[in-house]
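Notes from hallway chat w/ T.B., transcribed later so I don't forget. T.B. wanted the structure written out for a chain they're using in a teaching module, and asked if we could keep both sequence and structure tokens in one place. Agreed to drop them here.
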Amino acid sequence: MDFTDEIELKLKKLNTTRYGENPQQDGAIYKNIEKADIFPITEAEKLQGGEMSFNNWLDADSVLKMLWQFKEPFATVFKHLNPAGASQRDDIFEAYKEAWDGDPMSAFGGIAGLNRKVTEEIAEFAIDDKFLSAIIAPSYEDEALDIFEEKEKLKVLEINTDKPEDPGLDYRHISGGFLVQEQDFREIDPGDLVFLEDKGIKKPTDEQIEDMIFGWKINRRTKSNTVLLVKDKKTIGIGAGQQNRVDSGFIAGYRANKPYEELKDMSRTCSSSEIEDLSEYIGLNTEGRSRGSVAVSSAFYPFPDTIEVLNAFGVEASLSPAGSIRDDKAHEALKRNDMAGAHTPEIEESGYEGGIRAFLH
């Protein structure tokens, strides 16, 4: 892609926010008035609720970019720029229920996004003993809006969730300037994956491949380093934003098996600080939803230890880019643990040789 030598941005203030990222900081939201597709979330129509906060805008933009990736009924809930849960189903209500169920503790207070009309039953579920800061969808039934009025602080945003033909460039502000790059919405089909049968590693089943494709889309909108666990096109554990990949894998497994039903009590107390009691309380175990799941890693495994962690949680298949000097060690770990494996499509660009990856910072 050729980048122009000069970029002119003309911004118009929409309004000030209550404060910035933190209460000791002032903040405001500006809209680009010369090229609307640069910041399309500013086109959202707020149907009810208070003013969007600085952090609300950040999360809402992340939600919209996640929604852009899906044509089938899809729902997600974001918190602090990362998905708490995401699901694709034939029915949008089922998709939203499964997205919330992915990690209801992290979803609490988040921003929900759906790519279909919000119905009365979705609205009832969304506010039933749950807390959302905002919800984003392309349209709403009148009955759904009536239900949302019970939560007057809930921000209800309406915006087209289809990906624009030209999604524009990705601008990242740094001191004294901007980094600019292409948006990454490259489609991956099952035939694009690199299978590892020639290395003695099982080929994933058709269902596992579908979960890999789904998980890759979620990975692209999740802060790095990321390993996430998927089962039946639903995230069950997301290990996001870690400085090393093995911890991402561990967190994904831990969250998949967390006893959320037992942690609904808002007192959120543990009777003891003994490590055994704490481990039981937070659900630190290898049994549960992680069994039989598919792991999707945003980049290659630099060491085989992440695969060993995933195997301990009962993960049965893994998708990751190739490109590590220790790929052979990762392959050996997959084979030794009888896990199915695949790599993302390989590319050779600008001196890089390996699988496409999903870093997000």
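Follow-up for T.B.: Residues 11-158 form a domain with the Cytidine Deaminase; domain 2 fold (CATH 3.40.140.20). Might be a good example for the class.
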